[in-house]
Prior knowledge:
single chain, 7 helices, 2 domains, 45% helix, alpha+beta
Amino acid sequence: MKPPIHDLSPVPGRGDNRTNRPGNANVAEVDRQIAELVDRSTHELRLAWRQSYGTGPPWGLSRDLLIRALTNQLQEQSYGGMSGALRRRLQSLSGASAKATMAVDPGVVLKPGTTLVRQWRGHTHTVRVHQDGFEHEGQRYRSLTAIAERITEAHWSGPRFFGLTKRARDLAGAKTGR
């Protein structure tokens, strides 16, 4: 049996890269370890999976997918994984999708630093997107809806008010004759 690939455990302190910053990645070494995966038997790949994920691979998972998943783990450990923000976004989308509370299309995802501008009753409103919310007129908000309600003094969908939903874009296109 070949020596196990280095520790890919998701348990903190046991090889995981929770900071999402690249470790001391030696590209040649990572490439060598990935190439070795192809030469391993299916049984050895299953053992590596168990070491990496703490449980056996899903029943019926093909050899090819075992190799791909282990390769991904090696690369994440060496070069860094998903950002915390992306991980939270995917988690919220999967939860909402499982509950059937949203359509498959998540809509527009705003990056921090984006500026939204909206004219309302002769006044231009500017909103700046931050990592953990939004800023309007120097005040921080958790949602666009709270900002839209403050501006209009009525209940509005924030994404719709700022033209971020498909319906709002369609209406804007119809008004301009597109």
